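Internal tracking record. Fields below are filled automatically when a chain is submitted to the structure queue. Please do not edit lines marked as system-generated. If the sequence contains nonstandard residues, flag them in the REMARKS field before resubmitting.
Queue: standard
Priority: normal
Entity type: single polypeptide chain
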Amino acid sequence: MDVRLINPFVLATTTMFEKMLDCPLKRGELGVRPARDPYQGISGVMELKGGVTGLVVLNLSRNVALQAAGAMLNEHVSELNVHVVDTVGELVSIVNGQARARLTRLRLKPAFPKVLKERFHTVAFPAGQKVIHIPFESQWGPLCVDLTISSAVEFPAALNEHEDEAALEAAAVLA
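SYSTEM-GENERATED OUTPUT FOLLOWS
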């Protein structure tokens, strides 16, 4: 998978947590996740459509989800409720939206999030695609972004009009 497609999701996640939630993240080692492995915690899932297709999953441990909801609502949240589910949906929407802004030439279309909160849940990733696993650690606990991206077309040399700036940021992220 082209690293230029992964970097915007890494940057969007770290930026959102640091700036919106005042919770810096430390990225772990990128890897490939078995597509059928179940998730724990809460996952926000968004479909990618447009110049590419795929899925983006933002998976938060229970504590990260509670703390993120509390930070966004400016109140203590101690149980999984509709506000936590809404927060996770909003967070994956923000990650997707920020990444889309960095990939403008792919003409990604907005999508609605789906939130999965069963104790062990699976995501129906497209068959035959590698699931890129991007783990993070925070002061609240672990989280990850998993994604699949495929395209029937060749990627443009620059994925957005600010590719040079984004490439410098991305190099720092993946270093």
